[in-house]
């Protein structure tokens, strides 16, 4: 079959794969004739290959294989650091894990007690291994299982495979770092990195750029990281070998990163325990096919790293061709500008084996120790020299790499190398070594040695593309194009197709049989193998798109020579004049088709209105840090998001719209569209923006008791007393809303009862006013202090938050009431609400409201003990079923 035909098939496979990717990997069964057969956990090629490689220490092979055949335990980490994370850890320990004992059994089957991951800092990483049968039979396991799903959805914990937590820990991220996560979707490591960035108080000066070459997976990445509520994150969609290198106007040089994670696409056999279908699809060809891409990603990343910066290269495969071979070639090409760090003293409790210094490469069914031997046997056609352990290998200290073996810690398999940049990479690093004499000789001659040299030159440190290249490629892909020509990508193509075939079938059989939430582990396993697609379809599509975008860019046809400012002279552009990568709805056209452009929000009238309405302190620099994604100018933007100073600066540096931005910024405000809910402010507060807004808010705040907050969360709406209800005229006369309660008029209107509460946002109203709601007897607000505050705010959006002293007593804030950090999991207990004509309703999504209610109930239970009617019940944290049906759901 020709390549064109197969490419079409690839697209279908890719779509099928994506549609199912959120599902959990379970034990797969495949149709075998008319029989359903459970896949065997055997693969002779796999065993032979890895036995020969010597990846497992002497005498441990059986234990290695036995563990690989078992399902993977559940692991999770408690988000964030500090007191809040420790509190949650202690609560889980007291309420749940203390109920397990050492020698527990379920119907004769031993049950392993949950335990902490010994190497994870502050005992915040946990491991639990129990079977499905045990889960069904032991109620406490079911409760723990549900708790983990709930806390994961709420952003308090993250379910993540244990070994996948290691790269971010070794990246050693600090709050001021610029961090790049090159292959980031679905985003479990990005989330971990973000937490590290946010470990101090306030908004960090550093940023995280999370990239993935697959646009749909970028959306998944956005979704996964949304719960982190970080204004310091930007998600971009590029081929990591062509990520644009921007010019840093502050440093007057290329924009570089302090930390880079290259968690590259790989063949994924380290995930066999959660993706058992790999057993029957495993082939060394997958790894051989991915090696060139992995190397190119690592090389380009190294170029984007600051001198002194740290880069982690990781895979979830045991395969040395994708692991040590890539690291070795990277070190070789760097000519000592990169150093492989000895991290044996970091995470000391983590059991690991050192990297290999010799390995074999398989081709045509034979294993070869060197390129020369493969060449002599005519078996080198689909190989590159860089896949082999060369004679210089001992000088590279590959023993500093680490391989995580499943039987050592009951985990998946993983590989990690930590590198530090000590000097700029030589230009020669970006010119590929000859692969095969015959083709090699042709390539420069056919394509032009000058072009190659030019491409390599402009990829040098801090250099900008020469004008001609710049017009062709918005990204710093100069060396890449050279590399493409020289590495004879078309030969890798076949291997990639084969690898992709493996992925397709793998994907086709995914079924969701277990956990309802999209699980991180499923996505990770999927990601590991899906990367294969990027070699061809994804990568090529992106390259095409980047070319198209460059051509479509305003002024692309002009002489770039005249436009390029000499190094070091670039001025900082005006905030209001920038446009972040996107084209949709722009009359001038933008760079990235189908992407809404990022537009600074500078509407002075609206900004003043928002600032006045919520009494926002000047410390919240909305005028310079608020953005929207607008399709056209004729309507006010639907959402306003806040970006950190670091992201704002990056947006300004990206004045040529080189970045294809999927998402950035923390949503603070949403346009209030309800026609019957007019207030003087067009924008209401988005719940996720509260951690950022609350410290700056001085108006529309209502400090309520814990019991009131709990009631509001459970009942959705609490009525105002009759004498505080607003008159009907406020529905059409916004000015009247500004004057607070309606006095006598209010009383008159109140006689019309609840159904007349037109100021409630219609969408919410539909949700909250079911027949059961109407039947429920509604006790109005009654605490005198709360009533005083409710009377002092104006109708429309407001925030109900726990009173400081209660927040401190219940452990939700420091004694001074100030939240630690901006992450959602550590945000003060506050909810975005709507003060309507006759009631106050919350505007929080149901799952989040349920989670907040449970958190509050647990804290109250801890402080006050069980309420009389609850005294005989289980701890509050376990009793979602005791909540009203709409919350428990
Ligand atoms: C192993 S997964 C990453 C998992 C992720 N780091 C996490 O922890 O959730 C590899 C990812 O690389 C992406 N990918 C594949 N080829 C790529 C390329 N050329 N550039 C950027 N991303 C790529 C895939 O879409 C996939 O999401």
UniProtKB/TrEMBL annotation:
Bias kind Gly residues: ranges: 578-591
Active-site residues (renumbered): 316
SAM-dependent MTase RsmB/NOP-type domain mapped to chain residues: 64-422
Binding residue positions for S-adenosyl-L-methionine: 183-189, 212, 239, 263
Chain intervals with Low complexity compositional bias: 445-462, 748-759, 867-889
Record carries keyword tRNA-binding: yes
Region Disordered, residue ranges: 1-40, 433-479, 544-591, 734-784, 864-889
Domain of life: Eukaryota
Gene3D superfamilies per record: Vaccinia Virus protein VP39
Transmembrane intervals: none
Keyword flag Cytoplasm: no
Matches recorded under InterPro entries: MeTrfase_RsmB-F_NOP2_cat, MeTrfase_RsmB-F_NOP2_dom, Pre-PUA_NSUN2, PUA_NSUN2, RCMT, RCMT_NCL1, RsmB/NOL1/NOP2-like_CS, SAM-dependent_MTases_sf
UniProt-annotated location(s): Nucleus
Alphabetic keyword roster: Methyltransferase, Nucleus, RNA-binding, S-adenosyl-L-methionine, Transferase, tRNA processing, tRNA-binding
PROSITE patterns: NOL1_NOP2_SUN, SAM_MT_RSMB_NOP
Biased composition, class Basic and acidic residues, residue ranges: 565-574, 766-784
Family label: Belongs to the class I-like SAM-binding methyltransferase superfamily. RsmB/NOP family.
UniProt-recorded name of the protein: SAM-dependent MTase RsmB/NOP-type domain-containing protein
